[in-house]
Design goal:
The protein contains 19 helices and 15 strands. Strands 1, 2, 3, 4, 5, 6, 7, 11, 12 and 13 form a ten-stranded mixed sheet that branches. A three-stranded antiparallel sheet has the order 8-9-10. A hairpin with a 2-residue loop joins β9 and β10.
Length: 518
């Protein structure tokens, strides 16, 4: 197996650095000119045939088509940062969200702005399982907060530009009625977002006020918006938040407590005014890079997201690889000794796991098989990848064992070796020479495949970058950082597996006959 060379890694890092500079310079210069901007599209007719981006799970498509029947393709994204990146990269022409999120995005970038006309005002709130009493308990308090002006004061606090005001009360009450698990969208700043290592925002403070009055303690589980409703329906969360639009269709499946009413708005790309176009000035690109680096890694110790995510990725990879290899080896032993039924069962298991997307396996295990149990997403990820890697490893090992000449098996038995001695002393060493390089490559692939565990709200390396992107609304530094880390991690694993292969390779070992080297 070819090992990763040092110069290759250096070239990769250099390419990452250059690509980052190229990507950041135009955006920084455009955003910093400080002149008036106007929307690229100003009327609904302008959006005819254009592409619109939505968060997965957001029921806004029908509302867009009511305003603009001839709108083009509707594309769905997992996070707000992905949607904004798609808009700025001209993959879509507009995105839809509530006004607070849209204004925050337009204020952070000078190349996007709000569409002149909103989609309309809609009720947003907290979602509860159908038929429970929590919705009415929380609903009475949220209704009072809106009537006495508390909700308006909280809204002004979290939508203001003064970050020093954005603090949350500590859960210092007894919580005699128990602890409730809350599925919280982690990327809708300023309503509900992950900041400084914990959930923050307007929704979060509203829930804490309610929980204090009802004497509950809250355990917030951060996740993508598209996962919130699934968490509630599967029973993994007692309720969920994230500026959830209350529609008639959703009322049939869930109960709601209204937290605020807000305009739905479109965010579109901006075009420079005549004054801005003639200016041509821009801030120092080095300052822009330094600012991006600070926001991505230094501010609020965000580098810890990367470190913690790397640890989770390493744990899932190592546990799944070791356990999966053990399962694969066990299937080889069972195939050698088992009957047709055993072999058929093993063949069915390998065929099933090798033909199912790992994301589907994760979702089925998490929301169906372990849906009603309190099993963490990390454990479910290890189970899913163990089953998948075990099927692949078993197939590779068995094919290698079958490739060893059957005459060697017969000759060893004729010389008086037991079946166990024959397999472990004669067959397995030759088979290992064939399957270990293939298994090494699959172990590297396993490392990369674990990047999908964010679908079940596991904070791995890729999900950590998504969280940082949702906070900064910048894609380049977080993505290039994890690309470099994955590259280095895969090189390290390949080198370690190469070392193991060299140690067990019988062709590299000295051959002796009665103590004499050949």
């Amino acid at each position: 197996m070819r090992r990763c060379k040092g110069p290759l890694f250096v070239l990769f890092l250099a390419a990452v650095f250059v690509a980052t500079l190229v990507a950041l310079v135009p955006a920084r210069a455009f955003a910093s000119n400080g002149n008036a901007l106007k929307p690229e599209y100003a009327t609904w007719s302008d959006l005819s045939g254009k592409r619109v981006g939505l968060l997965a799970g957001a029921p806004f498509e029908s509302k867009i088509r009511e305003k603009c029947p001839n709108v083009g393709e509707i594309l769905y994204y997992s996070t707000m940062s992905d949607t904004i990146a798609a808009l700025r990269g001209k993959k879509i022409d507009a995105l839809v969200n509530n006004e607070a999120v849209g204004m925050l995005a337009s204020n952070r970038y000078g190349d996007i702005t709000l569409f002149p006309e909103p989609l309309g005002e809609y009720k947003m709130g907290i979602a509860f399982p159908k038929g429970g009493d929590l919705a009415s308990k929380f609903g009475k308090i949220t209704d009072r907060l809106q009537s006495d002006g508390t909700a308006d004061r909280l809204w002004d606090k979290w939508t203001s530009g003064d970050d020093s005001k954005k603090t949350l009360p500590e859960q210092d009450w007894a919580g005699s009625n128990g602890t409730l698990t809350v599925a919280s969208c982690e990327s809708l700043e300023p309503v509900s977002y992950l900041g400084d290592g914990r959930m923050m925002g307007y929704d979060i403070e509203t829930l804490l006020i309610c929980a204090k009055e009802l004497d509950y303690r809250l355990n917030f589980e951060p996740m993508e918006f598209s996962d919130v409703l699934s968490y509630i329906q599967s029973g993994k969360a007692d309720f969920g938040n994230g500026s959830i639009l209350i529609s008639d269709e959703r009322k049939q499946a869930m109960d709601f407590a209204v937290t605020h009413e807000n305009d739905l708005v479109l965010v579109v790309r901006a075009t420079e005014s005549a004054a801005a176009a003639s200016d041509g000035s821009g801030s120092n690109w080095l300052d822009g890079i330094a600012d991006s680096f600070t926001k991505t890694f230094v501010k609020d110790n965000r580098w810890m997201y990367i470190v913690n995510g790397l640890c989770v990725t390493a744990i899932i990879t190592l546990c799944s690889g070791v356990l999966g290899a053990a399962i694969g080896f066990a299937t080889v032993l069972l195939r050698r000794r088992g009957n047709r039924v055993v072999r058929a069962i093993i063949g069915g298991y390998e065929g099933l796991m090798n033909r199912l997307p790992i994301v589907v396996v994760l979702l089925v295990l998490y929301y169906v098989i372990f849906g009603s149990s309190d099993v963490s997403g990390t454990v479910v990820s290890i189970v899913a990848f163990t089953l998948a890697f075990g099927a692949t490893a078993g197939s590779i090992m068995w094919n290698a064992v079958q490739a060893v000449d059957a005459g060697q098996d017969e000759a060893s038995l004729a010389l008086g070796f037991t079946e166990r001695q024959t397999f472990f002393g004669v067959i397995l060493p030759q088979a290992a020479h064939q399957f270990m390089p293939l298994l090494s490559g699959q172990f590297v692939n396993l490392t990369k495949q674990t990047s999908v565990v964010g679908y079940i709200a596991v904070m791995d390396l890729t999900r950590a970058a998504d969280v940082i992107r949702s906070l900064t609304m910048e894609a380049f530094f977080p993505l290039f950082c994890i690309a470099a880390i994955y590259f280095a991690l895969c090189c390290l694993i390949a080198a370690a597996m190469g070392f193991v292969i060299r140690r067990i390779d019988y062709e590299r070992k000295p051959r002796t006959v009665r103590g004499v080297k050949l």
